[in-house]
Amino acid sequence: PSGLLVHRSWIDKDETQFALQLVRDQIGQYVYPVHRLDKPTSGVLLFALTKECAKFLSEQFINNKIQKSYLAVVRGYIESKGIIDYALKEQYDKMDDKRINHDKEPQEAVTHFQCLATVELPYPVSRYPVARYSFVELKPKTGRKHQLRRHMKHIMHPIVGDTKYGRGEHNQLFREKFDIHQLLLTAHTLTFTHPYSKASITLTAPLDEAFIKMTELFKLTV
Predict the structure, then answer these.
(1) Which residues pair with 128 in a beta bridge?
(2) Residues 182, 213: contact at Cβ < 8 Å?
(3) Residue 100 CA to chain centroid, in angstroms?
(4) CB 160 within 8 A of CB 174
(5) What's the N-to-C CA distance of the chain in angstroms?
(6) Rg for the chain (alpha carbons), in Å?
(7) Mean of the pLDDT values across residues 185-213?
(8) Is 96 a residue whose pLDDT tops 60?
(9) What are phi and psi of 63, to 5 degrees?
(10) ∠ Cα 211 215 217 (to 5°)
(11) How far apart are CA 163 and CA 152, in angstroms?
């Protein structure tokens, strides 16, 4: 769910619940995280049961062999489909600031997007008499930190609910009109190669309450 850390982190010292511990307690054995989702992002999260599986899966992530599909609600009417090819500077946490190279060249970052639906709402926002939004599918081809959130900001279609890269007036509208207090970005599907059978596995996360509201608003079946 949105708001749940994958594992303990100094960034949120006061947090008491973590996905790793919850899954471990549910199945009664240790699990190994092979990737992460930003704390505000909901959706598919993959764990391995052994170190060997974790290594195999991690290599798929590193080599961009994993196929990921996200759903998001963004500001404005976006193009029907396109590719965002925009290199991103590597981002670090404050703990790393003293030992990193701030002059490092931006890293390649590529995101494919497709607009699934649009909606116009009769609410004035900023200088506009109405508010327009798009429901989009996002497929990152690289795995840079905050890539989708930064890419959508770059093309002037920030994700609704994003308090770091988004627009406050749109976030406020969704809080007031729809009681949505989270980032409208979810990792919907994840496709990978099984470590032992070598079969292609696709995992799909059910939509949470906020995204169900959005599918109704946009008159979508996902």
Answers:
(1) 125
(2) no
(3) 25
(4) yes
(5) 18
(6) 18
(7) 97
(8) no
(9) -90, 10
(10) 110
(11) 13
* pLDDT for the residue 165: 97
Mean pLDDT of all residues belonging to the chain: 92
Eight-class DSSP state of 104:
P
The residue with greater pLDDT, 192 or 94, is: 192
Unique residue bearing structure tokens 């890269």: 165
pLDDT digits (tens, 9 = 90+) for 7-61: 766 555 666 678 999 999 999 999 999 999 999 999 999 999 999 999 999 999 9
H-type alpha helices, the chain: 19-27, 51-62, 147-154, 168-178, 209-217
Does residue 161 carry a pLDDT above 90?
yes
Q: Which residues form the catalytic set? A: 38
> Side-chain half-sphere of 194: how many Cα atoms within 13 Å?
8
Mean pLDDT of 196-207: 96
Count of all residues that appear for the chain in the document: 222
Distance between CA atoms of 73 and 71, rounded to whole angstroms?
A: 7
Q: Are 110 and 129 in contact (CB under 8 A)?
A: no
Q: Give, to the nearest 10 degrees, the angle between helix 209-217 and helix 168-178.
A: 90
d(CA 116, CA 106): 30
Residue 85 structure tokens: 């090819």
Q: Which amino acid is at 93?
A: D
Q: Are 139 and 68 a contacting pair, CB within 8 Å?
A: yes
Residue 157 vs residues 65, 147, 222: alpha-carbon distances, Å: 27, 14, 21
Provide, rounded to the nearest whole percent, the portion of the chain with pLDDT above 90.
83
Q: Dig out the tokens for 54 from the structure.
A: 């974790």
